[in-house]
Write a structure and sequence with these properties.
heterodimer; A: 109 residues; mainly beta; 6-stranded mixed sheet; 5-stranded antiparallel sheet; 11 strands; 0% helix; 59% strand; B: 117 residues; 7-stranded mixed sheet; 4-stranded antiparallel sheet; globular
Chain lengths: 109, 117
């Protein structure tokens, strides 16, 4: 079966850094995605990792270690608008995405 | 580019009726479309994979006779919730992959909030 774990909630202060961890055990691996989702809206794409290492895109960075089944999303210089759910998703056979439970990040002033 | 629309955005229906949700790729052809369901404070759960011109593939536990999927063209897939019941109330989201692109990225529609009374 597929198992993707991430923390349920995290709280951080505006301007700070937050790291959201994701561990996965899946049958097959075609890459790992991070999405941001505001309440009542569709997920929006943040990052994609298929090879080990760090991918940096502005204030957001994502890291992948395939041997450890581990990824993290790093959010720097947090802004109030970053308060949202962050979804870790693994692409498996048939290009299907299996999502983790999501991490709700609350940014406080 | 890569915009996916859904219609309607919200629907309220009586128990026992059927509801059709449309998912359209507006500026690209989608080989494959996916249908997800999301309950409050939970993550997205894949319901089925829809391929143009062929039958949908349903995930385990999803009733194919209750959730009818039709992928009539490379830009349109529909999900019909038949004989809806209050427990079917949820946020339904579709996504689409761009035809002939190796990259696995899925583009998500804005979602449809279904409330069954």
């Amino acid at each position: 079966g597929q198992n993707i774990d991430q923390p349920t909630e995290m709280t951080a202060t505006e301007g700070a850094i937050v790291q959201i961890n994701c561990t996965y055990q899946t049958s097959g691996f075609n890459g790992l995605f991070w999405y941001q989702q505001h309440a009542g809206e569709a997920p929006t794409f943040l990052s994609y990792n298929v090879l080990d290492g760090l991918e940096e895109k502005g204030r957001f960075s994502s890291f992948l270690s395939r041997s450890k089944g581990y990824s993290y999303l790093l959010l720097k210089e947090l802004q109030m608008k970053d308060s949202a759910s962050y979804l870790c998703a693994v692409a498996t056979a048939g290009n299907k995405l299996t999502f983790g439970g999501g991490t709700r990040v609350l940014v406080k002033p | 580019g890569a915009v996916v629309s859904q219609h309607p955005s919200r629907v309220i229906c009586k128990s026992g009726t059927s509801v059709k949700i449309e998912c359209r790729s507006l500026d690209f052809q989608a080989t494959t479309m996916f249908w997800y369901r999301q309950f409050p404070k939970q993550s997205l759960m894949l319901m089925a994979t829809s391929n143009e011109g062929s039958k949908a593939t349903y995930e385990q536990g999803v009733e194919k006779d209750k959730f009818l999927i039709n992928h009539a063209s490379l830009t349109l897939s529909t999900l019909t919730v038949t004989s809806a019941h209050p427990e079917d109330s949820s946020f339904y989201i579709c996504s689409a992959r761009i035809r002939d692109r190796a990259f696995n990225e899925q583009f998500f529609g804005p979602g449809t909030r279904l409330t069954v009374l």
